[in-house]
Amino acid sequence: MRVRGFSLIELVMVIMITGILAGAVTVFLKPAIDSYFDTRRRADMTDMADTAMRRMSQDIRRAVANSVQSVSPSCFQLVPTNAGGRFRMAPDTLNDTPAPLPCTPSATCSAPLDVTQPVTEFDVLTPMATVPAVNDWVVINNQNAGDVYAGANRAQISAIAAASRSSDGLFRISIGSTQFASDYDGGRFVVVPNAEQTVFYSCVGNTLYRTSAAFNASQAATCAATTGAIVATDVASCTFVYDPNQGATQQSGFVWMRLELSRDGESVALVHGSHVDNVP
Known about the structure:
By secondary structure, the chain is of the alpha+beta class.
């Protein structure tokens, strides 16, 4: 019995028809597929830029008053805080003993923070979301950007314990002997973690870094650091502008941030602003 196969002409026709169909499918499907991946890249970059903006804004809002410094258009510096509250400003004239007052701080005597003389301990009157640790720093009345960096109004914590009496407050913090500004009557303090004394946000190459460093006595001249946490990649450009005197008074600063990311021909740009509370 004779078995008949495909002729060469039939095979060529099948190949041609298959090619035409494949080309037609490619013409219609490729734009849709490319659009899907382009949209996904833009979504990924938007999410990364938004996360970076939120991270920077969080640090800016919880920074020590007047500690934000513009180092360059692509870098800024600040001193972060992780706790704070109100300190006792005067003795407890009702419960303190022994007389005469003021007495030496003890289990029966309160520990007010007297700004007119050096102090080594003080009572905290308000709850703190994060209890400070030994070696963290207390900062009081940071009126000028350079004070907290130079150390004029900060002291390192040597001990912290619950107050002996409820009338004294919640905590008693011991510090190295420090004379704070004698004209300050705000009664507030903030705590700077020793592990993050100052923080830089800097764009180097195509990467945005968050770098922790020790206090520097003078304003940093450069932020060209490639160490620390990577906040964003694929950075095409970034701009940071800090205005310490936004508005009618010097108690409200403003940081304007622009971050542009680019990948495989697609780019996104986000602009965000964060207000800075410069009231110590």
